Amino acid sequence: MVVSARSRAGRDEARLALDRFERQENFPVALRVLPARYRRDLRALYAFARTVDELGDSAAGDRTVQLQELDAELSRIWTGGAVTDPVLAGLAITVRAHDLPAKPFHDLVAANLMDQTVNRYETFEELRGYCRLSADPVGRLVLGVFDQASDALTLALSDRVCTALQLLEHWQDVGEDRRAGRIYLPQEDLRRHGVPETDLDAASASPALRALVREEVEQAAELLESGAGIVDRVQGWARPCVAGFVAGGRATAAALRRTDGDVLARSARASRPGTAARLVVLLGRSLVGRPR
Description:
By secondary structure, this protein is an all-alpha fold. Helix content is 71%, strand content 0%. The protein is built from 15 helices and no strands. The longest helix is centred in the N-terminal third of the chain and has 23 residues, at 36-58. It is globular.
């Protein structure tokens, strides 16, 4: 049955997701200093997000049906029904400990359901709308784990950071996404730069594509910086964690800039030392109250 297959896949994915989470370059230092209770809750969020992504990207069979089944079982965390999926069972502990709302979790599923039918975005605003489902909920849930998700400005800044991180990831993966049948570069931007979709199949980027990628990277980097003030607004253990997001984004933007827009031929992965250095700077300046 699909449900049992999904449960087995979820069990394996949960274990792999926890391993991947510990290696995430956005959090090379922050995770090591967080108390165990926060690490456990962040792992639970990440395991859920990765499980949803795996179902949406690579599950065998009808991915839409499997995502809908997961979404239905997810609802039981708040309605009191039985939860048998191992990832959801672990997530339920975190949800109840911090009274996390259901909507951000359902939004993550909705983003992956969208991926089953939408593989192009006409405008940048349409792409941002997708990021509101696929990325912004993660930041809001992380703030919820630290019980700091009630301030409207903090949430707005978190959304900017998370959308920027999602965009930067898209620009890292232009070739990979193309091979998977998806193009996140807005169609109107491709036309404006004179970039046919077939240019995305090349071994290296054309001059026009490089110019487009450079433009998109700078737009995402500006969005990231517009939300970086969140580091000063959160308190306690939330600060190094949130600073890890921002530092990781800055390191990714720097890695993308080093490719000079040729993300087809050159790796744009941020290094751990580069991310760690930016995290230290962020936290240091936040502590002394200096502008970033």
